[in-house]
Design brief:
Helices cover 25% and strands 28% of the residues. It has 257 residues and is an alpha/beta fold. The chain has one domain: Ribonuclease Z/Hydroxyacylglutathione hydrolase-like (Metallo-beta-lactamase, Chain A), CATH 3.60.15. The strands form 4 sheets. The chain has a 7-stranded mixed β-sheet with strand order 10-7-6-5-4-1-18. The chain has a 7-stranded mixed β-sheet with strand order 11-12-13-14-15-16-17, with helices on one face. The longest helix is centred in the middle third of the chain and has 11 residues. It binds zinc ion. Zinc ion binds next to loops.
Length: 257
């Protein structure tokens, strides 16, 4: 399984920067988890091939480029962009984003090939197929209904926490997978900001350490979703935990599992 966390910002030389305001993870250049920066930083191959976007939740940093991704492809789509989300997420998108006031309601529009958007609802906690992948959704603890996913091809499974604070189900599911090849887990704020992390339901390194104690299976762990303003502090606090197989997921790098 090929996996890439797309960049969402550029540095002073115009190159991709590690500062991550927005989140999109592309799997095998075909399926995206979240569309925070998908339209802004996907490769041409990804733009041509990604037609399935699985949403963890509807916070803006996870959907910000979804309208532009569809807009960009509007005339050329020969099949709709499929948005996989719970019914509640789909209602929020239609009410608050694709409402003509913020952006066009693409679900009411067609191009010369037909529909440009198709909503594909999933039940919270269900398992569903997306292209060549089997996806287990796991509700996690965040300010809105949010999900982590365990994504499996025929060889390996990779867990992605999405945005969450402390949680149980995700780790139970990870522990049940013999083919678990990697776990991507969020850690948004440094320890000092534990209160804000609690209020916004994210993790800090001290909580991450408690969370990883629930992972009973040896698998490399990659930290994602570091708030850019605190990135360096979160990295040094994660390193100071002295946890074995834990690294920060590098923005833009292509990982093969
Ligand atoms: Zn969120």
């Amino acid at each position: 399984m090929k996996l890439q966390l797309l960049p969402s910002t550029i540095d002073e030389n115009g190159r991709a920067s590690a500062r991550q305001h927005l989140l999109s993870i592309v799997i095998d250049d075909k399926v995206a988890i979240d569309a925070g920066c998908l339209a802004f930083s996907c490769s041409n191959e990804q733009r041509e091939n990604v037609r399935d976007i699985i949403l963890t939740h509807t916070h803006l940093d996870h959907i910000a480029s979804l309208p532009m991704f569809i807009d960009d492809l509007f005339a050329s789509l020969t099949s709709p962009v499929r948005i996989h989300g719970t019914r509640q997420m789909i209602e929020i998108l239609e009410r608050d984003i694709f409402n003509w006031a913020i952006y066009p309601r693409f679900s009411e529009l067609t191009n010369s090939y037909g529909k440009v958007v198709e909503y594909v609802p999933f039940e919270s906690g269900s398992r569903f197929e997306v292209k060549h992948l089997s996806v287990q959704s796991i509700p996690v603890n965040h300010k809105v209904l949010a999900h982590g996913f365990i994504v499996s091809d025929e060889r390996v499974s990779v867990a992605v926490s999405g945005d969450t604070t402390t949680t149980e189900g995700l780790w139970r599911e990870c522990n049940s997978r013999d083919d678990l090849a990697a776990v991507l887990v969020e850690c948004a704020f440094p320890n000092e900001m534990k209160e804000l992390a609690g209020a916004s339901q994210h993790l800090v390194p001290a909580l991450l350490s408690d969370e990883l104690a629930k992972l009973e299976r040896p698998a490399p762990v990659f930290v994602i979703n570091l708030k850019p303003a605190y990135r360096e502090r979160v990295i040094s606090e994660v390193r100071a935990l002295g946890l074995g197989d834990v690294e920060i997921l590098e923005v833009g790098r292509i990982y093969e599992f």
